[in-house]
Write a structure and sequence with these properties.
Blueprint (H helix, E strand, L loop, with lengths): L2 E6 L7 H13 L5 E6 L1 H4 L6 H17 L7 E5 L5 H10 L4 H5 L2 H9 L6 H16 L4 E3 L5 H18 L8 E3 L34 H10 L15 H14 L3 H7 L5 H27 L2 H30 L3
Helix pairs in contact: 3-12, 4-7, 4-13, 7-8, 9-12, 10-12
This protein binds tryptophanyl-5'AMP.
Length: about 325
């Protein structure tokens, strides 16, 4: 089976964009691949984060992975910092990554602009650590949302440069898996921005753990336009974003959805969308509560995940060291 690797930062509220752009796709294809899904806590410390919050978010994200349907029969779930090879490999690969490549990373520029008082070296080198996550496991596919496209590209560049420098196939070249629909869910408040964990306005996103009442309020407030026409239209990103979410939850084709709401207003559509969201999230929330209230089992799953993936990480790191003459 081909190897799949992906991860999410435990930096707060996991939202519908993370679900539709990433987790749901992981779950849907999990039996086809040899999967590794990581909770990337080393990435989470590139911006200021409270220690207790980081520790709790890490467990919460693990519980959410399971609640969304990731199955330990098909997937290894682990915490990045539990496998030291990520940090060690990251130092080595920093020394094989031209600064010019990192200067071009759009996500660094955005995050640096948003957090001018706390830009550290780790944030700058973030893509190298992400490349190491992927390369350590000889990954074939990286299922992610659209915002990670450039990070997977630089991973390929780093791998290719290293392989050709030493004329050896040390790294497998990974490919991004980005779906046509749902790879970029937009903010409910400002549909020209992506839905994001760090948006200061909580009404801009639906969190997977939002209560039905909150979901209803957020969808009711979601930005649309004055046209009152429920139709997919790139010129009208607000309603189109809501329709895309609805389409992903129902699996219906665009024309069928437009026909369903022909002659109806945004209110009717928003009510239907709210029902679908609640119906999708309620079972996830129920299972989440079971997992989060059984911390012993959760820690066990994470330890087992790390123990299972570590040999592959060690093998790749040792090979890298051998090739470059370290150790
Ligand atoms: P993160 O934690 O920002 O996001 C996790 C996943 O959710 C996707 N995503 C979205 N998809 C659709 N619409 C949105 N609005 C939206 N927002 C987020 C992201 O594309 C991602 O797939 N750097 C990564 C974490 C990472 C990683 C890795 C990923 C570290 N190492 C190795 C893959 C492989 C990140 O910050 O994702």
């Amino acid at each position: 089976k081909k190897r799949v690797f992906s991860g999410i930062q435990p930096t707060g509220n996991i939202h519908l964009g993370n679900y539709l752009g990433a987790i749901r796709n992981w779950v849907g294809a999990q039996d086809q691949y040899d999967n590794i899904f990581c909770i990337v806590d080393l990435h989470a410390i590139t911006l200021p984060i409270n220690a207790k919050e980081l520790h709790q978010n890490t467990r919460k994200l693990a519980a959410l992975y399971l609640a969304c349907g990731l199955d330990t029969r098909y997937c290894n779930l682990f915490v990045q910092s539990h496998v030291h090879e990520h940090a060690e490999m990251s130092w080595i690969m920093n020394c094989y990554t031209p600064m010019g490549w990192l200067n071009r990373m759009t996500q660094f520029k955005t995050k640096a602009d948003e957090n001018p008082e706390s830009v550290n070296t780790g944030l700058y080198c973030y893509p190298v650590l992400m490349a190491c996550d992927i390369l350590l496991y000889q990954t074939h596919y990286v299922p992610v949302g659209d915002d990670q496209r450039q990070h997977v590209e630089i991973t390929r560049d780093i791998a290719q440069r290293f392989n050709s420098l030493y004329k050896k196939r040390v790294f497998t070249l990974p490919e991004a898996q980005i779906r046509d629909t749902g790879a970029r869910i937009m903010s409910l408040e400002n549909p020209s921005k992506k839905m994001s964990k760090s948006d200061p306005n909580p009404a801009s996103r639906i969190n997977l753990l939002d209560e039905p009442k909150v979901i209803k309020q957020k969808i009711a407030r979601a930005t649309t336009d004055s046209l009152r026409l429920v139709a997919f239209d790139p010129e009208r990103p607000g309603i189109t974003n809501l329709l895309t979410i609805y389409q992903m939850l129902t699996g219906q084709p665009e024309q069928e959805i437009e026909a369903e709401f022909a002659g109806k207003g945004y209110g009717d559509f928003k009510a239907a969308l709210t029902d679908r969201l609640v119906a999708t999230l309620e079972p996830i929330q129920r299972r989440y509560n079971e997992y989060i209230n059984d911390m012993v089992s959760l820690e066990g799953i994470l330890k087992q995940g790390a123990d299972r993936v570590r040999p592959q990480a060690t093998a790749t790191l040792n090979r890298v060291k051998e090739v470059i003459g370290l150790g």
